[in-house]
Amino acid sequence: MSDFNTANELAAELVWGRTYQGDESCFKPTTIVFHRGLDSEDKVVVEDDGETDWAAVASRIQALLGQGYDYTTLPCEICGATELGDVFHCEECGDRMRPS
């Protein structure tokens, strides 16, 4: 999926709790953390405050993806973690998010 399509999809899930392409109900994350891997302190957090503009979020996400950031949504659909340090794997790059 292109950065543009990924950004639109992530923004729709975060802001609306719906898929962008199919407009179907889906898991609604509360936070998306953009990062550059396990050892990096470089992180950007995107959250929905209930008044978030979808287009602004999608544009920001596309810029972050274009700069090479990976992402993890919280809470994690797989393990239920609500904190980044508790998430076992990054959705995008598959890196372990914490040592075992």
Give Rg in angstroms: 13 Å
Kindly report the spatial arrangement of strands forming the biggest sheet.
Answer: 2-1-3
Tell me the overall shape.
Answer: globular
Strand-and-helix sequence, N→C? HEEHE
The CA-CA distance between the termini, in Å, is: 30 Å
**Helix proportion:** 25-40%
Mean of all residue-level pLDDT scores? 84
Structural class: alpha+beta
Number of strands: 3
How would you describe this protein?
With 100 residues, the protein is an alpha+beta fold. The chain has one domain (3-86). Helix content is 27%, strand content 15%. The chain has two helices and three strands, in the order H-E-E-H-E. The chain has helices spanning 3-16, 54-66; strands at residues 31-35, 43-47, 70-74. The protein has a three-stranded antiparallel β-sheet with strand order 2-1-3, with helices on one face. A hairpin with a 7-residue loop joins strand 1 (31-35) and strand 2. The radius of gyration is 13 Å and the shape is globular. The model has no long low-confidence stretch (mean pLDDT 84).
Short description:
The protein is of the alpha+beta class and 100 residues long. It is built from 2 helices and 3 strands; from the N terminus they run H-E-E-H-E.
